[in-house]
Design brief:
Blueprint: H1 7-24, H2 65-77, H3 79-100, E1 105-119, E2 125-142, H4 147-213, H5 219-234, H6 236-253, H7 283-286, H8 288-309, E3 314-325, E4 334-344, H9 352-418, H10 425-459
Antiparallel strand pairs: 1-2, 2-3, 3-4
GO molecular function: efflux transmembrane transporter activity
Signal peptide: 1-25
Membrane topology: Lipid-anchor
Length: 485
Amino acid sequence: MKFNITHSHFKAASPLLCLLLLVSACSPFKPSPRQEPVAPLPQAFSLYSEQEPDTGRWWEAFGNEELNGLVEEALAANTDILVAWARLRQAGATATQSAADKYPTLDATGDYSHTSTHDNGGPKRNTTAEEHAVGLSAGYEVDLWGRIRAASASDDYEFMATREDVRTTAMTVASEVVSRWLEIQAERRKKRILAEQIKANQTYLELIELRFRNSISTALDVYQQRQNLAGVQAKLPPVESNEQTLLHELALLMGKPAGSVTVSDADLPELSSLPGLGLPADLLAHRPDVRAAGLRLSSADWSVAAARADRLPSLNLAGTAEYSGTQLATLFNNWALGLAASIVGPIFDGGYRKAEVEKARGVVDERIADYRNTVYTAFKEVEDALVQEKWQKKYITALGTQHDAARTSLSEAVSRYTQGLDDYLPVLSALLSVQDLELTMADEQTNLLLYRVALHRALGGDWTDGLQPPAIETKPRETSTGNQG
Protein backbone atom coordinates (compact mmCIF):
# COMPACT_ATOMS: atom_id res chain seq x y z
CA MET A 1 0.00 0.00 0.00
CA LYS A 2 1.23 3.53 -0.71
CA PHE A 3 -0.06 6.97 0.32
CA ASN A 4 1.14 10.35 -1.02
CA ILE A 5 1.03 13.45 1.16
CA THR A 6 1.22 16.77 -0.68
CA HIS A 7 2.80 19.96 0.61
CA SER A 8 -0.59 21.34 1.62
CA HIS A 9 -1.17 18.36 3.93
CA PHE A 10 2.21 18.50 5.58
CA LYS A 11 1.16 20.97 8.27
CA ALA A 12 -1.74 18.78 9.34
CA ALA A 13 0.43 15.64 9.37
CA SER A 14 3.24 17.14 11.46
CA PRO A 15 1.92 15.94 14.86
CA LEU A 16 1.64 12.39 13.47
CA LEU A 17 5.18 12.52 12.14
CA CYS A 18 6.49 13.71 15.50
CA LEU A 19 4.69 10.81 17.19
CA LEU A 20 6.21 8.35 14.72
CA LEU A 21 9.67 9.76 15.34
CA LEU A 22 9.20 9.27 19.10
CA VAL A 23 8.06 5.69 18.53
CA SER A 24 11.12 5.04 16.37
CA ALA A 25 13.40 6.06 19.24
CA CYS A 26 12.01 3.36 21.52
CA SER A 27 13.59 0.34 19.73
CA PRO A 28 10.89 -2.13 20.84
CA PHE A 29 12.94 -5.08 19.54
CA LYS A 30 16.11 -4.32 21.50
CA PRO A 31 17.76 -7.62 22.63
CA SER A 32 17.24 -8.54 26.26
CA PRO A 33 20.35 -9.19 28.38
CA ARG A 34 21.00 -12.81 29.27
CA GLN A 35 20.45 -13.64 32.93
CA GLU A 36 22.74 -16.68 33.12
CA PRO A 37 26.37 -16.82 31.90
CA VAL A 38 26.72 -18.55 28.56
CA ALA A 39 29.91 -20.37 29.57
CA PRO A 40 30.50 -20.56 33.34
CA LEU A 41 34.10 -21.27 34.35
CA PRO A 42 35.70 -22.87 37.43
CA GLN A 43 36.81 -20.63 40.28
CA ALA A 44 40.53 -21.36 39.89
CA PHE A 45 43.12 -23.14 37.78
CA SER A 46 44.54 -26.51 38.81
CA LEU A 47 47.87 -24.87 39.68
CA TYR A 48 48.47 -21.70 41.67
CA SER A 49 51.06 -18.99 41.14
CA GLU A 50 52.05 -16.33 43.65
CA GLN A 51 53.14 -13.99 40.87
CA GLU A 52 50.95 -11.10 39.77
CA PRO A 53 49.44 -11.56 36.29
CA ASP A 54 51.57 -9.89 33.62
CA THR A 55 49.68 -9.12 30.43
CA GLY A 56 52.55 -7.37 28.67
CA ARG A 57 55.16 -8.50 26.14
CA TRP A 58 56.05 -11.77 27.81
CA TRP A 59 58.79 -12.79 25.36
CA GLU A 60 61.01 -9.95 26.56
CA ALA A 61 61.60 -11.97 29.75
CA PHE A 62 63.80 -14.30 27.68
CA GLY A 63 66.36 -11.48 27.55
CA ASN A 64 67.33 -11.70 23.87
CA GLU A 65 67.29 -8.46 21.90
CA GLU A 66 67.38 -10.22 18.54
CA LEU A 67 64.28 -12.20 19.47
CA ASN A 68 62.51 -9.00 20.51
CA GLY A 69 63.34 -7.45 17.16
CA LEU A 70 62.13 -10.50 15.22
CA VAL A 71 58.77 -10.39 17.00
CA GLU A 72 58.34 -6.67 16.40
CA GLU A 73 59.21 -7.05 12.74
CA ALA A 74 56.75 -9.92 12.35
CA LEU A 75 53.97 -7.91 14.01
CA ALA A 76 54.49 -5.17 11.42
CA ALA A 77 54.93 -7.30 8.28
CA ASN A 78 53.26 -10.68 8.78
CA THR A 79 50.82 -11.28 5.93
CA ASP A 80 48.14 -12.84 8.15
CA ILE A 81 48.16 -9.71 10.30
CA LEU A 82 47.98 -7.51 7.19
CA VAL A 83 44.97 -9.52 6.00
CA ALA A 84 43.33 -9.04 9.41
CA TRP A 85 43.91 -5.27 9.22
CA ALA A 86 42.39 -5.19 5.73
CA ARG A 87 39.32 -7.07 6.96
CA LEU A 88 39.01 -4.57 9.78
CA ARG A 89 38.91 -1.73 7.25
CA GLN A 90 36.18 -3.55 5.36
CA ALA A 91 34.16 -4.13 8.53
CA GLY A 92 34.58 -0.48 9.49
CA ALA A 93 33.29 0.64 6.10
CA THR A 94 30.31 -1.71 6.40
CA ALA A 95 29.49 -0.32 9.85
CA THR A 96 29.69 3.23 8.49
CA GLN A 97 27.32 2.34 5.66
CA SER A 98 24.81 0.83 8.10
CA ALA A 99 24.99 3.88 10.34
CA ALA A 100 24.40 6.15 7.33
CA ASP A 101 20.88 4.70 6.95
CA LYS A 102 19.90 6.45 10.19
CA TYR A 103 20.28 9.87 8.54
CA PRO A 104 18.53 11.59 5.64
CA THR A 105 20.02 11.57 2.17
CA LEU A 106 20.43 14.73 0.11
CA ASP A 107 21.27 14.69 -3.59
CA ALA A 108 21.75 17.47 -6.13
CA THR A 109 19.81 17.11 -9.37
CA GLY A 110 20.16 18.76 -12.76
CA ASP A 111 18.18 18.31 -15.96
CA TYR A 112 18.47 19.70 -19.45
CA SER A 113 16.25 18.93 -22.42
CA HIS A 114 16.35 20.20 -26.00
CA THR A 115 13.49 19.56 -28.42
CA SER A 116 13.47 20.49 -32.11
CA THR A 117 10.47 19.85 -34.45
CA HIS A 118 10.16 20.28 -38.24
CA ASP A 119 6.78 20.27 -40.11
CA ASN A 120 6.82 19.91 -43.94
CA GLY A 121 3.03 19.35 -44.36
CA GLY A 122 2.07 23.01 -44.66
CA PRO A 123 3.94 26.20 -44.25
CA LYS A 124 7.44 25.41 -43.24
CA ARG A 125 7.71 25.58 -39.46
CA ASN A 126 10.66 24.89 -37.18
CA THR A 127 10.16 24.83 -33.41
CA THR A 128 12.88 24.62 -30.78
CA ALA A 129 12.30 24.28 -27.03
CA GLU A 130 14.77 24.04 -24.14
CA GLU A 131 14.25 23.31 -20.49
CA HIS A 132 16.76 23.81 -17.67
CA ALA A 133 16.29 22.59 -14.11
CA VAL A 134 18.42 22.31 -10.97
CA GLY A 135 17.36 21.22 -7.53
CA LEU A 136 17.75 19.09 -4.45
CA SER A 137 16.25 15.71 -3.60
CA ALA A 138 16.05 14.43 -0.03
CA GLY A 139 14.96 11.07 1.38
CA TYR A 140 14.57 9.64 4.85
CA GLU A 141 13.26 6.38 6.28
CA VAL A 142 11.67 6.85 9.68
CA ASP A 143 13.02 4.06 11.88
CA LEU A 144 9.64 3.23 13.41
CA TRP A 145 10.58 -0.09 14.97
CA GLY A 146 14.35 0.27 15.35
CA ARG A 147 15.24 -1.88 12.34
CA ILE A 148 17.91 0.49 11.05
CA ARG A 149 19.32 1.04 14.52
CA ALA A 150 19.46 -2.72 15.16
CA ALA A 151 21.18 -3.41 11.83
CA SER A 152 23.70 -0.66 12.57
CA ALA A 153 24.37 -2.06 16.06
CA SER A 154 24.88 -5.53 14.58
CA ASP A 155 27.51 -4.23 12.18
CA ASP A 156 29.15 -2.19 14.96
CA TYR A 157 29.60 -5.35 17.05
CA GLU A 158 30.94 -7.19 14.01
CA PHE A 159 33.45 -4.38 13.51
CA MET A 160 34.60 -4.66 17.12
CA ALA A 161 34.87 -8.44 16.77
CA THR A 162 37.01 -8.02 13.66
CA ARG A 163 39.30 -5.73 15.62
CA GLU A 164 39.71 -8.51 18.17
CA ASP A 165 40.59 -10.84 15.28
CA VAL A 166 43.57 -8.59 14.54
CA ARG A 167 44.74 -8.96 18.13
CA THR A 168 44.20 -12.72 18.08
CA THR A 169 46.29 -13.03 14.93
CA ALA A 170 49.04 -10.87 16.45
CA MET A 171 49.18 -13.04 19.58
CA THR A 172 49.41 -16.17 17.44
CA VAL A 173 52.17 -14.72 15.27
CA ALA A 174 54.21 -13.57 18.28
CA SER A 175 54.08 -17.01 19.90
CA GLU A 176 54.93 -18.72 16.60
CA VAL A 177 57.99 -16.49 16.09
CA VAL A 178 59.23 -17.22 19.62
CA SER A 179 58.62 -20.96 19.13
CA ARG A 180 60.54 -21.02 15.85
CA TRP A 181 63.44 -19.11 17.39
CA LEU A 182 63.63 -21.57 20.30
CA GLU A 183 63.47 -24.54 17.94
CA ILE A 184 66.24 -23.10 15.75
CA GLN A 185 68.49 -22.64 18.79
CA ALA A 186 67.57 -26.18 19.92
CA GLU A 187 68.61 -27.66 16.57
CA ARG A 188 71.96 -25.85 16.80
CA ARG A 189 72.42 -27.19 20.30
CA LYS A 190 71.79 -30.71 19.00
CA LYS A 191 74.41 -30.11 16.29
CA ARG A 192 76.95 -29.24 18.98
CA ILE A 193 76.01 -32.35 20.96
CA LEU A 194 76.35 -34.52 17.84
CA ALA A 195 79.73 -32.97 17.05
CA GLU A 196 80.95 -33.90 20.52
CA GLN A 197 79.52 -37.40 20.16
CA ILE A 198 81.22 -37.88 16.80
CA LYS A 199 84.52 -36.77 18.32
CA ALA A 200 84.07 -39.14 21.26
CA ASN A 201 83.20 -42.06 18.98
CA GLN A 202 86.26 -41.36 16.83
CA THR A 203 88.39 -41.48 19.97
CA TYR A 204 86.83 -44.81 20.97
CA LEU A 205 87.41 -46.14 17.45
CA GLU A 206 91.07 -45.12 17.49
CA LEU A 207 91.52 -46.85 20.86
CA ILE A 208 89.89 -50.08 19.66
CA GLU A 209 91.87 -50.10 16.42
CA LEU A 210 95.07 -49.69 18.47
CA ARG A 211 94.05 -52.59 20.70
CA PHE A 212 93.17 -54.63 17.60
CA ARG A 213 96.63 -54.05 16.13
CA ASN A 214 98.05 -55.24 19.44
CA SER A 215 95.80 -58.33 19.28
CA ILE A 216 93.91 -57.23 22.40
CA SER A 217 90.53 -56.52 20.68
CA THR A 218 88.68 -58.38 17.97
CA ALA A 219 87.74 -57.28 14.49
CA LEU A 220 84.10 -57.41 15.60
CA ASP A 221 84.81 -54.70 18.18
CA VAL A 222 86.21 -52.49 15.44
CA TYR A 223 83.24 -53.08 13.17
CA GLN A 224 80.75 -52.39 15.94
CA GLN A 225 82.39 -49.08 16.83
CA ARG A 226 82.59 -48.06 13.19
CA GLN A 227 78.85 -48.78 12.92
CA ASN A 228 78.17 -46.67 16.01
CA LEU A 229 80.22 -43.78 14.60
CA ALA A 230 78.37 -43.96 11.27
CA GLY A 231 75.04 -43.99 13.11
CA VAL A 232 75.84 -40.78 15.00
CA GLN A 233 77.08 -39.11 11.81
CA ALA A 234 73.81 -40.10 10.10
CA LYS A 235 71.83 -38.09 12.68
CA LEU A 236 73.44 -34.82 11.61
CA PRO A 237 71.81 -34.22 8.15
CA PRO A 238 68.21 -34.30 9.49
CA VAL A 239 69.18 -31.74 12.12
CA GLU A 240 70.67 -29.48 9.46
CA SER A 241 67.51 -29.88 7.38
CA ASN A 242 65.25 -29.06 10.32
CA GLU A 243 67.22 -25.92 11.08
CA GLN A 244 66.87 -24.67 7.51
CA THR A 245 63.15 -25.38 7.30
CA LEU A 246 62.60 -23.62 10.63
CA LEU A 247 64.44 -20.58 9.27
CA HIS A 248 62.16 -20.68 6.23
CA GLU A 249 59.09 -20.81 8.47
CA LEU A 250 60.44 -17.87 10.48
CA ALA A 251 60.93 -15.88 7.28
CA LEU A 252 57.34 -16.55 6.25
CA LEU A 253 56.10 -15.41 9.65
CA MET A 254 57.99 -12.17 9.12
CA GLY A 255 56.50 -11.63 5.69
CA LYS A 256 59.74 -12.39 3.83
CA PRO A 257 60.82 -15.01 1.29
CA ALA A 258 62.51 -18.17 2.49
CA GLY A 259 66.26 -17.84 2.91
CA SER A 260 66.23 -14.11 3.66
CA VAL A 261 66.28 -14.35 7.46
CA THR A 262 69.28 -15.25 9.59
CA VAL A 263 69.40 -15.87 13.33
CA SER A 264 72.45 -15.55 15.55
CA ASP A 265 73.49 -18.37 17.84
CA ALA A 266 72.24 -18.04 21.40
CA ASP A 267 71.89 -20.20 24.47
CA LEU A 268 68.40 -21.38 25.30
CA PRO A 269 66.95 -19.20 28.08
CA GLU A 270 66.46 -20.53 31.57
CA LEU A 271 62.86 -21.23 32.51
CA SER A 272 61.64 -18.66 35.01
CA SER A 273 59.09 -19.27 37.75
CA LEU A 274 55.46 -19.82 36.81
CA PRO A 275 53.89 -16.54 35.65
CA GLY A 276 50.86 -15.03 37.32
CA LEU A 277 47.72 -16.87 36.24
CA GLY A 278 44.93 -14.82 37.73
CA LEU A 279 41.47 -16.36 37.70
CA PRO A 280 39.84 -18.34 34.89
CA ALA A 281 37.29 -15.54 34.52
CA ASP A 282 40.17 -13.23 33.54
CA LEU A 283 40.39 -15.12 30.24
CA LEU A 284 37.15 -13.44 29.19
CA ALA A 285 38.97 -10.10 29.23
CA HIS A 286 42.51 -11.15 28.34
CA ARG A 287 41.79 -13.43 25.38
CA PRO A 288 40.87 -11.49 22.19
CA ASP A 289 39.39 -14.59 20.56
CA VAL A 290 36.98 -14.92 23.50
CA ARG A 291 36.08 -11.24 23.26
CA ALA A 292 35.51 -11.62 19.51
CA ALA A 293 33.17 -14.58 20.06
CA GLY A 294 31.19 -12.59 22.61
CA LEU A 295 30.92 -9.58 20.31
CA ARG A 296 29.72 -11.75 17.44
CA LEU A 297 27.05 -13.17 19.73
CA SER A 298 25.87 -9.62 20.46
CA SER A 299 25.92 -8.88 16.72
CA ALA A 300 23.67 -11.89 16.12
CA ASP A 301 21.27 -10.72 18.85
CA TRP A 302 20.87 -7.37 17.11
CA SER A 303 20.38 -9.12 13.76
CA VAL A 304 17.36 -10.89 15.26
CA ALA A 305 15.98 -7.51 16.35
CA ALA A 306 16.47 -6.12 12.84
CA ALA A 307 14.78 -9.15 11.24
CA ARG A 308 11.78 -8.88 13.58
CA ALA A 309 11.39 -5.15 12.91
CA ASP A 310 11.57 -5.76 9.16
CA ARG A 311 8.23 -7.63 9.34
CA LEU A 312 6.42 -4.38 10.23
CA PRO A 313 5.49 -1.44 7.93
CA SER A 314 8.11 1.15 7.04
CA LEU A 315 7.64 4.89 6.54
CA ASN A 316 9.67 6.80 3.96
CA LEU A 317 9.73 10.56 3.51
CA ALA A 318 10.85 12.27 0.32
CA GLY A 319 11.26 15.92 -0.52
CA THR A 320 12.26 17.82 -3.65
CA ALA A 321 13.09 21.47 -4.36
CA GLU A 322 13.63 22.56 -7.95
CA TYR A 323 14.27 25.70 -10.01
CA SER A 324 13.44 25.56 -13.72
CA GLY A 325 13.44 27.85 -16.76
CA THR A 326 13.51 27.82 -20.54
CA GLN A 327 16.81 29.66 -20.53
CA LEU A 328 19.71 29.84 -18.12
CA ALA A 329 18.91 33.51 -17.53
CA THR A 330 15.41 32.63 -16.29
CA LEU A 331 16.46 29.50 -14.39
CA PHE A 332 15.65 30.91 -10.96
CA ASN A 333 12.36 32.55 -11.91
CA ASN A 334 10.27 29.41 -11.30
CA TRP A 335 10.54 27.08 -8.34
CA ALA A 336 8.68 24.09 -7.01
CA LEU A 337 8.70 22.34 -3.64
CA GLY A 338 7.36 18.83 -3.04
CA LEU A 339 7.02 16.53 -0.03
CA ALA A 340 5.83 12.94 -0.11
CA ALA A 341 5.49 10.15 2.41
CA SER A 342 4.96 6.47 1.71
CA ILE A 343 4.10 3.61 4.04
CA VAL A 344 4.94 0.11 2.87
CA GLY A 345 3.83 -2.92 4.86
CA PRO A 346 4.30 -6.59 3.96
CA ILE A 347 1.07 -8.50 3.31
CA PHE A 348 2.25 -11.66 1.58
CA ASP A 349 5.87 -12.63 0.93
CA GLY A 350 5.67 -16.40 0.97
CA GLY A 351 7.06 -16.54 4.51
CA TYR A 352 10.35 -14.86 3.55
CA ARG A 353 10.55 -12.40 6.46
CA LYS A 354 9.41 -14.97 9.01
CA ALA A 355 12.10 -17.33 7.73
CA GLU A 356 14.63 -14.50 8.01
CA VAL A 357 13.81 -14.15 11.71
CA GLU A 358 14.18 -17.90 12.19
CA LYS A 359 17.48 -17.83 10.32
CA ALA A 360 18.76 -15.01 12.55
CA ARG A 361 17.77 -16.94 15.66
CA GLY A 362 19.60 -19.97 14.31
CA VAL A 363 22.71 -17.81 13.95
CA VAL A 364 22.32 -16.77 17.60
CA ASP A 365 22.23 -20.42 18.68
CA GLU A 366 25.34 -21.05 16.58
CA ARG A 367 27.14 -18.08 18.13
CA ILE A 368 26.20 -19.21 21.65
CA ALA A 369 27.72 -22.63 20.99
CA ASP A 370 30.77 -21.02 19.36
CA TYR A 371 31.26 -18.65 22.31
CA ARG A 372 31.00 -21.51 24.81
CA ASN A 373 33.47 -23.57 22.77
CA THR A 374 35.90 -20.64 22.54
CA VAL A 375 35.78 -20.00 26.29
CA TYR A 376 36.23 -23.64 27.21
CA THR A 377 38.99 -24.04 24.63
CA ALA A 378 40.82 -21.09 26.18
CA PHE A 379 40.49 -22.64 29.64
CA LYS A 380 41.63 -26.02 28.28
CA GLU A 381 44.71 -24.48 26.64
CA VAL A 382 45.78 -22.92 29.93
CA GLU A 383 45.20 -26.16 31.82
CA ASP A 384 47.01 -28.18 29.14
CA ALA A 385 50.05 -25.91 29.29
CA LEU A 386 50.11 -26.03 33.10
CA VAL A 387 49.84 -29.83 33.22
CA GLN A 388 52.40 -30.31 30.45
CA GLU A 389 54.91 -28.01 32.14
CA LYS A 390 54.39 -29.64 35.54
CA TRP A 391 54.98 -33.19 34.31
CA GLN A 392 57.67 -32.14 31.82
CA LYS A 393 59.78 -30.90 34.72
CA LYS A 394 59.38 -34.27 36.44
CA TYR A 395 60.21 -36.04 33.19
CA ILE A 396 63.40 -34.03 32.69
CA THR A 397 64.43 -34.74 36.28
CA ALA A 398 63.90 -38.47 35.67
CA LEU A 399 65.86 -38.29 32.44
CA GLY A 400 68.71 -36.61 34.31
CA THR A 401 68.78 -39.44 36.83
CA GLN A 402 68.75 -41.97 34.02
CA HIS A 403 71.55 -40.11 32.23
CA ASP A 404 73.73 -40.11 35.36
CA ALA A 405 73.16 -43.84 35.77
CA ALA A 406 74.01 -44.46 32.11
CA ARG A 407 77.26 -42.52 32.42
CA THR A 408 78.21 -44.53 35.50
CA SER A 409 77.41 -47.72 33.63
CA LEU A 410 79.55 -46.57 30.68
CA SER A 411 82.49 -45.77 32.95
CA GLU A 412 82.29 -49.21 34.58
CA ALA A 413 81.96 -50.97 31.20
CA VAL A 414 85.00 -49.15 29.81
CA SER A 415 87.00 -50.07 32.92
CA ARG A 416 86.11 -53.75 32.67
CA TYR A 417 86.82 -53.74 28.92
CA THR A 418 90.26 -52.20 29.27
CA GLN A 419 91.07 -54.76 31.97
CA GLY A 420 90.04 -57.56 29.64
CA LEU A 421 87.20 -58.69 31.91
CA ASP A 422 84.41 -58.13 29.33
CA ASP A 423 84.11 -57.78 25.58
CA TYR A 424 83.18 -54.52 23.84
CA LEU A 425 79.40 -55.09 23.65
CA PRO A 426 78.62 -53.69 27.17
CA VAL A 427 80.67 -50.59 26.32
CA LEU A 428 78.82 -50.11 23.06
CA SER A 429 75.43 -50.56 24.71
CA ALA A 430 76.22 -48.06 27.47
CA LEU A 431 77.69 -45.57 24.99
CA LEU A 432 74.57 -45.71 22.79
CA SER A 433 72.36 -45.18 25.85
CA VAL A 434 74.33 -42.14 27.05
CA GLN A 435 74.37 -40.48 23.64
CA ASP A 436 70.66 -41.12 22.98
CA LEU A 437 69.79 -39.66 26.38
CA GLU A 438 71.84 -36.54 25.65
CA LEU A 439 69.78 -35.86 22.51
CA THR A 440 66.51 -36.74 24.24
CA MET A 441 67.22 -34.36 27.11
CA ALA A 442 67.99 -31.57 24.64
CA ASP A 443 64.63 -32.13 22.91
CA GLU A 444 62.68 -32.31 26.14
CA GLN A 445 64.28 -29.17 27.59
CA THR A 446 63.18 -27.37 24.43
CA ASN A 447 59.68 -28.78 24.80
CA LEU A 448 59.56 -27.38 28.34
CA LEU A 449 60.23 -23.89 26.97
CA LEU A 450 57.63 -24.40 24.23
CA TYR A 451 55.04 -25.35 26.88
CA ARG A 452 55.80 -22.05 28.62
CA VAL A 453 55.26 -20.21 25.31
CA ALA A 454 51.93 -22.04 24.94
CA LEU A 455 50.96 -20.93 28.45
CA HIS A 456 51.67 -17.27 27.69
CA ARG A 457 49.70 -17.56 24.48
CA ALA A 458 46.78 -19.21 26.29
CA LEU A 459 46.68 -16.55 29.02
CA GLY A 460 46.39 -13.75 26.45
CA GLY A 461 47.14 -10.18 27.49
CA ASP A 462 46.59 -6.56 26.66
CA TRP A 463 49.87 -5.85 24.88
CA THR A 464 48.06 -5.96 21.52
CA ASP A 465 46.13 -2.79 22.43
CA GLY A 466 49.08 -0.73 21.19
CA LEU A 467 49.20 -2.28 17.72
CA GLN A 468 49.10 0.24 14.90
CA PRO A 469 47.57 -0.43 11.47
CA PRO A 470 49.91 -0.46 8.46
CA ALA A 471 50.29 2.65 6.36
CA ILE A 472 47.57 2.88 3.70
CA GLU A 473 48.77 3.31 0.14
CA THR A 474 46.76 6.24 -1.26
CA LYS A 475 48.28 6.52 -4.75
CA PRO A 476 47.74 3.80 -7.37
CA ARG A 477 50.84 2.00 -8.47
CA GLU A 478 52.16 2.97 -11.86
CA THR A 479 52.23 0.27 -14.49
CA SER A 480 54.26 0.07 -17.63
CA THR A 481 53.35 -1.79 -20.81
CA GLY A 482 56.60 -1.25 -22.69
CA ASN A 483 60.05 -2.78 -22.34
CA GLN A 484 62.10 -1.37 -19.51
CA GLY A 485 65.61 -0.35 -20.27
